[in-house]
Amino acid sequence: MKVTFTLLIFLFAALTLNAENGHDLWLRAKHTAPVNVVCSGKSPTLEIAKQELHQGWQGKANATFVLKKKHDKLIKGDGYRLSPDGIEANTDLGLLYGVYDLLRRQQTGEPITEQVENPSYERRILDHWDNLDGTIERGYAGRSIFWHGKDSLAVTEKDKKLWQEYARADASIGINGAVLDNVNASPLVLTTEYLKRVQAIAEVLRPYGIKTYLSVNFASPSVIGGLKTSDPLDPQVKEWWKNKAKEIYKLIPDFGGFLVKANSEGQPGPQNFGRTHADGANTIADAVKPYGGIVMWRAFVYSANDEDRAKQAYNEFMPLDGKFHDNVIIQVKNGPVDFQPREPFSPLFGAMKKTPVMPELQVTQEYLGQAVHLVFLAPMWEEFLKSDTYQEGKGSTVARCTDGSIFQQTHTAIAGVANVGLDTNWCGHPFAQANWYAFGRLAWNNQLSSDQIADEWVKLTFKPTPAEDRTHSTVLPIVWNINFLKPVKRMMLESREAAVNYMMPLGLHHIFAPENHYGPGPWWAPKGVRKDWTPPYYHQADTLGIGFDRTENGSNAVSQYHEPLRSLFNDVNTCPEIYLLWFHHLPWNYQTQSGLTLWDDLCYHYQEGLDQVRSFQKTWDKAKPYVDKERFSVVQKKLRKQCINAQVWKDACLLYFQQFSRMPIPYNIERPVHNLKDLIENDMKRKR
Ligand code: GCW
After folding, report:
1. What angle is formed at CA 377 by the lines to CA 375 and CA 382, rounded to 5 degrees?
2. Active-site residue 338, yes or no?
3. Ligand 1 atom index nearest CA of 367
């Protein structure tokens, strides 16, 4: 009887859910109860706040809700005080953030009690790697929403509508900055015609509290300014940057500042002129300083030699601690190498004491299956933010080292490389939206758990809207929770570990196919390529063993971490197994904590990853009655591809490494279904 009843609910629900193309993201709630909003102030931001309340209110019908600006020492920056009857904040933007929080709580059923919410970081920024011709570096969701090429600089109504929707989505999760162009920056972005478009974008983003920033090319003074040099200590160059800043702030008075990738992967930088990163950053920072602008200077640099890549940023920047002006922040990727499925945190976090450092996370899944694989990144970022650096003793987590809790910093910030493009659903994969959402939520509150973020996102994104509920009185909340929320959340929370398992478990890293960074390529090592761009440099597999020796006997990268981490990582017996082959080169028959040989353990991890993806397929198929047809089928198809890819990863890595281990794949593990030779020939780039 119970079974039939549940079945009936399933069928009914499946028949009545409205088709959704994903464009509304987590902001789907419409047609709600009337509310009486009391707000004496007037500004474009407050207009939005009021409109959002009218549009999304799900509290008591005809209730009165008060938005009030009030100076309160407990409220910091754009924070707010939330209560069941109203919101108080120091700024209009604080009130808007409070409104989004309230509406989210109404929709997700979280309690609305009296509480103060303050942001963890002053600047919560999305970095768009958008090129001026409209392509996006590492973008998997179509072309740029900001740029369409030189011949399309005129701003259309369509552009503006999209920018407004984008700004609303950002503001609803607390993001307050957007870098509009790729860090591999074209000097052209600083020419007047492009700046005019930046101005137009800034005007749409402004009421939502989003500041615009630009990535700039270090050689701009000579390339577009006609100067003989871009030497940062040359007086004319300094003058050029000052004048450029003046021009920009005239157009965009609240312009946020510049992001710079210098002396990295072919980009020009101060070292071309025999100057340091500090010389370069300070010249540009001085230019924006009078207007309150900042410079985010990236630490993603390479040294001239191929000494352990994981050590290079630290070696370059540590000697410069204290040499940067106070409106410079060093932007550091979460791991020491490059946005891998798993890395220990970069030792630059918790290292410098006189220079603020900001984390750079990658929302776009360059190394995590792009817009094909379902990989929820919040667990990775939570692991990173909660890592203890021991900078000032125990409890000096990355979060605390960067949000100003440990040292007083003039500025605090966090950046995420955006996964947004012109695709109808913005992110390519419906579940990739969860990564945009998670970045914003963690930037606002770096203590949030992945569980809570997933919980919110699934409810906001998939729960039948009040309109659907009213018309069809379909799924009972408890049934929805058990049959949809719980399993889908579990799948999301497991998905990052699954990707690590089928791509590079036990501390392996950077064994991707070249260029597209999608499939496996542990074999790729052509002559003449920088060694630290090739997978064998990272896995170091030979007949004796596998892994990168970063201990005191090897590259000594462990020395860049504070004690007790240094010793913990250095000793194979205490090194966490998730980082085993990151720090150690070990024999194939080394016994892991599981009691297995390293080789067998590796095999089981790859199998586990594949099995996990298969279980995600089942979870999703079972969730079918609760999802509209459109989104259901997109995800189902993508999971199939992910499963095929996981199989390829497993076969490629095991068959390749088996050439060195010369050990059998444990017999209770499924046999490979591909031949290594074919895999090497048919690089996954072409098969995708
Ligand atoms: O991960 C690498 C990417 C490059 C990127 C670079 C960087 C923008 O493969 O595409 O360039 O990092 O972060 O600068």
Report:
1. 150
2. yes
3. 1
The pLDDT tens digits of the residues spanning 244-299 come to 999 999 999 999 999 999 999 999 999 999 999 999 999 999 999 999 999 999 99
Q: Report d(CA 90, CA 93) in Å as an integer.
A: 8
Measured between alpha carbons, how far is 625 from 504 in angstroms, rounded to an integer? 35
Burial class (CB in 10 A: 0-12, 13-18, 19+), 387: buried
The full length of the chain comes to 688
Which amino acids bring their CB within 6 angstroms of ligand 1? 129, 137-138, 183-184, 261, 265, 300, 338-339, 366
CA atoms within 13 A on the CB side of 436: 29
Tokens for 457?
């996102």
What angle in degrees, to the nearest 10, is found between the helix axes of 486-503 and 629-661?
Answer: 30
Contact 342, 375 (CB under 8 A): no
For residue 172, the SS3 value is helix
The rounded distance, in Å, linking the Cα atoms of 624 and 282 is 55
CA distance 522 to 510: 8
pLDDT range class, residue 480, cuts 50, 70, 90: very high
Q: Which of 160-169, 268-277, 301-310, 543-552 has the lowest mean pLDDT?
A: 301-310
Q: How far apart are CA 278 and CA 326, in angstroms?
A: 11
- 3-class DSSP assignment, residue 423: coil
17: which 2 tokens?
């859910």
CA nearest 518: which of 384, 341, 291? 341
Q: How far apart are CA 377 and CA 371, in angstroms?
A: 13
Q: How far is the CA of 536 from the centre of ligand 1 (A)?
A: 20
Core vs surface per residue 210-228: b (16+ CB within 10 A) or e: bbbbbbbbbbbbbbbbebe
State which H helix or E strand residue 198 sits in: helix 192-205
CA 141 to ligand 1 center in whole angstroms: 17
Give the three-class secondary structure for 314: helix
| Ligand 1 atom at shortest distance from the alpha carbon of 137 | 10
What is the CA(228)–ligand 1 centre distance, in A? 29
Q: Which three-class secondary structure string do you get for 359-393?
A: EEEECCCCCCCCCCCCCCCHHHHHHHHCCECCECE
DSSP letters for 629-660: HHHHHHHHHHHHHHHHHHHHHHHHHHHHHHHH
Write the secondary structure of 275-298 as one string of H (helix), E (strand) and C (coil). CCHHHHHHHHHHHHHHHCCEEEEE
Contacts of 51 (CB under 8 A, 6+ apart): none
pLDDT (0 to 100) of residue 1: 43
Question: Which ranges constitute the DSSP H helices of 504-597?
Answer: 535-539, 565-570, 580-583
Query: Which bin fits 25, alpha (ψ -120 to 50), beta or left (φ > 0)?
Result: left
Please tell me which residue in 130, 159, 338, 549 is annotated as part of the active site: 338
Closest-CA residue, ligand 1 atom 2, reads 338
| SS3 labels along 222-241 | HHCCCCCCCCCCCHHHHHHH
Model pTM above 0.90: yes
88 is catalytic: no
Active-site residue (options: 78, 181, 343, 366): 366
Ligand 1 atom with least separation from CA of 129: 8
Nearest CA to ligand 1 atom 11: 184
